[in-house]
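Section 4.2 – Deliverable D4.2 (structural model, holo form)

The reporting period included a commitment to supply a predicted holo structure for the target in complex with iron/sulfur cluster. Inputs used:
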Amino acid sequence: MDTTHNNIESLLLRFNDKSPQEVLSWFLSAYSGRIALASGLGAEGQVLTDMISKIDKSIRIFTIDTGRLFPESYKLIDRNNRRYEINMEVFFPDHKEVESYILQHGINGFYDSVEKRKACCHARKMEPLKRALANLDVWICGLRNEQSITRKSVQMIEWDESNGLIKLNPLIHWTEDEVWKYIKFNNVPYNRLHDKGFPSIGCQPCTRAVESGHDIRSGRWWWEN
Ligand code: SF4
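Output (structure tokens):
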């Protein structure tokens, strides 16, 4: 199997109009042992966890515990493990990086500037993600094109230059409505915060509920606008 960026175009031609389950079935088999789902524990991550567990329970599914998650997110990890009889992997940040950040910028330094927020995200999310992706050829993500304007150009299959592997977005063409229809129809467990107006769920201090009809990502880092 070609694990470089050379075959992205041919893979896109072959799979771009296929269903997420068809795409997943092929990739999970073709890249067996070298593919994993990175779940942020949002609605899309839950749909993919359900689909993947129904195809092959041995596929790695991981999430990143930044240390600042909502209690509901921890409950969801536990519910996933019980419901699907899987063992989600949890990656943590390097404690030295986090301790150094807090010493320098304070426990909630991310509110002070965009730079400090990005530095926190780097220490708590990007560094553990890099470790989680080591030795993989493909990582699966729950990105959808309609999630925000900046995500319009995302493709179902992309070459992730910074991490040096293929990024697969099986739900890229799905609408929010399709995601929730799947969740309800398949009785997929989901984060209870979605019922309280949180369309997108990240770290507790950086996520809030949004009014219906507003951009679904406007509940993140709102103080920067
Ligand atoms: Fe830090 Fe907020 Fe980024 Fe979480 S979302 S890593 S708390 S800045």
